Amino acid sequence: MTRPRKRVHLAAHFPGVNNTTVWADPRSGSQIDFASFVHLARTAERGTFDFFFLAEGLRLRELKGRIHDLDVVGRPEALTVLSALAAVTDRLGLAGTVNATFNEPYELARRLSTLDHLSEGRAAWNVVTSSDAFTGENFRRGGYLDRADRYRRAGEFVELSRKLWDSWQPDALVADQDSGRFVRTGDVGAFRHQGEQFTVEGRFTLPRGPQRHPVIIQAGDSDEGREFAASAADVIFSRHGTLEDGRAFYADVKRRLARYGREPATLKIMPAATYALGDTEEEAAERAAEIRRLQVGPQTAIAFLEQVWGRDMSAVDPDGPLPDIEPNLADGVSQGRAAHGDRASLAAKWRTIADEKRLTVRELVIEVTGRQTFIGTPESVARQIDEHVQADAADGFILVPHLTPGGLDEFVDRVVPLLRERGVFRTEYTGGTLREHLELT
């Protein structure tokens, strides 16, 4: 029996927390002005995307003790921006990254519930964690959380948040027709929780949201992260964009769901994806190469090298060969970025690639940090996306354009109609909440 064709899910990521945005392009706009957020969100809604996604950092990144000016400086707080976007969009989901290490469940659950009410059921929370003492210096408790404890805290944080969102029973208050007032019929908002990470009790201030719980997104790729996603997440923001890696990741995470009593359809896997379009395959390939050259300029290439080598490499020629210098594994020069893991192995891998392909430093960084997931004509990109989804390499993709705020326009105008022609993408919204868009059961 032939399996029905899967529907493609799409979301839009507002770029800017890394070197994604091509600042040199004259079409590149502000990363702070509200008009930029509105433009990208409305483009995504015009394309009937599932949701709009904001990343966020809690401290300005530093390189060699100085603010790393290739990152965005001054990005507004995510949930505030999303609450404002709720007023200028109608159906688009609104997803924000909020850290579970440096926030408290009651306060954050209240803010997310507020967004869900204001947007009539379109809120989502990308749960991230941190064991970074550098980031923790911004907070009262500092870098107190051991790396091994970050998912234990996050798991209990999500569990407690759901308890708070459920603390109001659907019929806790009913309207009295004679007085016009609400009458209490049950225990309103009462909660009590005692766990390893949190001991709290009181009353939650908001009734259940339109979709009961905001959608939970998770992006961890470690074994602990995959297990956390299988137990608690609705969507995984994955980095596995190739067909082979995507299928392996997809099968691994979906297989874990059964131990938590979940069905595969209850978790959507949506890798980050970029794209480069052209009227011909050759034009698209040339455009992709040019985008990467602009994303990885000389200064960025040296910055990436320093992050892995843990040394000041400012004297290295980015257009010359990789220098014969061993990495400094004891120290690092970059703070506020996700850890590179085993830097010794990574440096050895980079050297092998550089030697085998005779690459300059800049060419090497372009090679190992390549981002264009889909390259081709609109027809071939639509086909590639569909093939990935039908092959169970993904349930859809979170698109990261290289321009702010207009980088999504071409995709919506040229690729989305072709996905609709293939019968795998909606022509209009049929539901009101984000859970309905994602077909979450």
From TrEMBL:
CDD domains found in the cross-reference section: Nitrilotriacetate_monoxgenase (cd01095)
UniProt xrefs under InterPro entries: Diverse_substr_monoxygenases (IPR051260), Luciferase-like_dom (IPR011251), Luciferase-like_sf (IPR036661), NTA_MOA (IPR016215)
Binding site for FMN: 97, 151, 222
MF-aspect GO terms: monooxygenase activity; oxidoreductase activity, acting on paired donors, with incorporation or reduction of molecular oxygen
Keywords: Flavoprotein, FMN, Monooxygenase, Oxidoreductase
Short name of any one Pfam family annotated for the protein: Bac_luciferase
Highest taxon, organism lineage: Bacteria
Sequence ranges assigned to domain Luciferase-like in this UniProt record: 25-391
Family from the record: Belongs to the NtaA/SnaA/DszA monooxygenase family.
Name by which UniProt lists this protein: Nitrilotriacetate monooxygenase component A
Originating species: Nonomuraea glycinis
